Amino acid sequence: MTSKRIFVLNGHPAATSLTRTMAQTYAAAAQKAGHEVRITHLHDIDFDMDYGFAGYAQHKPLEPCLEAVQVDIEWAEHVVLTTPMWWGGLPAKLKGLIDRVFLPGWAFDTRKQTLGMPQPMLKGRSARAIVLSDTPGIFFSLFYRNALLRQIKGQIFRFVGFKPVKISHFAPAGNASPEKADKWIGKVEAIAREGA
């Protein structure tokens, strides 16, 4: 197995959560398997979540913690995002981080387009999202058409060039028994050892 540079972003805004446990589990197992790992917890960084402008004609300087996220993504060969699903989408602070960090000229190039789509600028990296939701998988798929998973995979990671992008979805997470949570954690450890 080839060692990878892996950046783990825990996208849960709370200080403690099962999502944070998943991020820490992945980071520890990957490091133990010989991968080089960096980890950031959304709770631990402070920034203005609002980009604040219509379009990109004006520039809003990045806070140092957001510049550090960009550096970690540039350094990484594989990016892992752990996140809960809240109201069918990402937590507001995580969405704010994406709005602020994934900017034109860094994540995508609007001057170079194919079929109206900007050229991705973060190619050469793979990604995995670990998503926890209270919505059971069958409802998530049949009624909501896996909307959040498709957004993360296609409209965030693939949009800026990550490939392949894989998703692990664990549900229902809100009242998961310790036995079920341990089973999920075991799956994350196995994924992490492979750097996948």
UniProtKB/TrEMBL annotation:
Q: Which GO terms describe its molecular function?
A: NAD(P)H dehydrogenase (quinone) activity
Which residue range or ranges hold the Flavodoxin-like fold domain? 4-178
Per the record, GO CC terms?
cytosol
| The protein's name in its UniProt record | NAD(P)H-dependent oxidoreductase
Q: Which family does it belong to?
A: Belongs to the NAD(P)H dehydrogenase (quinone) family.
Coiled coil segments of this chain = none
Q: Which InterPro entries match?
A: Flavodoxin_fold, Flavoprotein-like_sf, NAD(P)H_dehydrogenase_qn
Task: Answer yes or no on keyword Oxidoreductase.
Answer: yes
UniProt superkingdom = Bacteria
**Keyword entries, A-Z:** Oxidoreductase
